[in-house]
Amino acid sequence: QIQLVESGGGLVQAGGSLRLSCAASGRSLGGYSIAWFRQVPGKERELVASVLWNGDGTFYGDFGKGRFTISRDGAGRSVYLQMNSLKPEDTGVYLCAAQFGYSGPNRYTYWGQGAQVTVSS
User: Fold this and answer.
1) What is the phi/psi pair of residue 26, to 5°?
2) How many angstroms separate the CA atoms of 102 and 14, rounded?
3) Neighbours of 36 (CB within 10 A)
């Protein structure tokens, strides 16, 4: 059982940048694949980006490809989502999710409470 905590959300103007962080309370994220999802009211939760437990593979959803970068820190404590060239349509609650190892994109079992990202035009 791990508890995920997101940080780094906020309000930014279009064209700006934000970096979201995801950490596990009191423990390492080593061995866990981590993903960022976006939740917008009235829409299905959308996979933004993911990184495998061993750091060897990353995946990006279409809307963030080329603008967002997911990375893990060397100590295995945090996973980051660097978001550049933000657009108003990127607005939403960004949730960090984890699964031990990797069993598939729909097998994330641990979830954070989310960080609000609001991009103004």
Assistant:
1) 75, 10
2) 34
3) 28
Q: How far apart are CA 54 and CA 77, in angstroms?
A: 13
pLDDT tens column, 106-121: 999 999 999 999 999 9
Neighbours of 15 (CB within 10 A): 11
pLDDT tens across 87-111, in order? 999 999 999 999 999 999 999 999 9
Other C-beta atoms closer than 10 Å to the C-beta of 25 total: 9
Question: How many angstroms separate the Cα of 97 from the Cα of each of 9, 26, 57, 73, 78?
Answer: 16, 16, 16, 16, 12
Q: What distances in angstroms separate CA 103 from CA 5, 8, 14, 38, 55, one per listed residue?
A: 22, 28, 36, 20, 15
| Six-digit token string for 54 | 């061993």
